[in-house]
Design the sequence.
C-alpha cells in the first residue's frame, strides 16, 4: 500500500512515487513526507512474514542479507516511525530494528518504533530519542549497556546518555 509522497533511494538514483508491487531491495533508503505512508509486505526470503509500515515523515534504510545461509533483515530508522506486525521469525533468521540509541530484536510480534530528533535549546545541540511500543508478544531492546524485554502493553523510552525506562501509559 502506498499513499502520498514517497521516494526510494537506490544506487544513487531516486524513485519517486513507487507503484504498488515494486520491490524493495537491500540498501534502499525509503523516505515519506508528511502525507506519505508505505506498507511493505515482507517476502519469505527475509526470514519473516508480515507487514512493515513506514509512517509519515520518516526515513529508513532496509538491509536484507544472509548470514551463514539464514536471512537477516535490518531496518535502520534515521527519523520518524515504523510499525510492524511480524509473524514468527523462521529458524535462526533475525529481524532487527536499529536506531542511534538502541537495537530491537523482533521475535514475532506487533510493535512500533518512533525516533524523534529533539533539540536542546539551551545547549544548541540535538539528540535522538527512541520510543518502543509493543501491542502483541514482546520486543527485546538493547542499548549497548543491557537488554530489556518490552511486553505487550508497555512503552520503553531510550534517550542518549540515559538508561532505558518504561513510561506509564493509559
Sequence:
Amino acid at each position: 500500500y502506498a499513499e502520498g509522497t514517497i521516494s526510494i533511494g537506490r544506487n544513487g538514483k531516486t524513485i519517486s512515487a513507487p507503484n504498488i508491487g515494486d520491490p524493495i531491495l537491500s540498501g534502499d533508503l525509503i523516505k515519506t513526507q508528511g502525507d506519505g505512508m508505505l506498507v511493505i509486505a515482507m517476502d519469505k526470503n527475509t526470514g519473516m512474514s508480515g507487514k512493515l509500515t513506514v509512517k509519515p515523515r520518516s526515513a529508513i534504510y532496509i538491509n536484507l542479507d544472509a548470514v551463514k545461509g539464514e536471512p537477516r533483515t535490518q531496518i535502520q530508522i534515521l527519523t520518524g516511525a515504523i510499525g510492524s506486525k511480524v509473524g514468527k521469525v523462521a529458524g535462526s533468521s533475525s529481524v532487527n530494528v536499529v536506531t542511534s540509541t538502541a537495537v530491537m530484536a523482533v521475535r514475532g510480534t506487533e510493535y512500533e518504533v518512533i525516533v524523534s530528533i529533539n533539540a536542546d535549546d539551551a545547549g544548541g545541540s540535538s539528540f535522538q530519542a527512541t520510543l518502543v511500543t509493543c501491542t502483541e508478544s514482546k520486543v527485546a531492546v538493547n542499548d549497548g549497556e543491557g537488554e530489556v524485554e518490552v511486553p505487550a502493553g508497555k512503552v520503553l523510552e531510550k534517550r542518549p546518555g540515559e538508561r532505558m525506562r518504561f513510561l506509564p501509559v493509559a
Residues 111 and 134 are 4 Å apart (CA to CA). The mean pLDDT is 85.
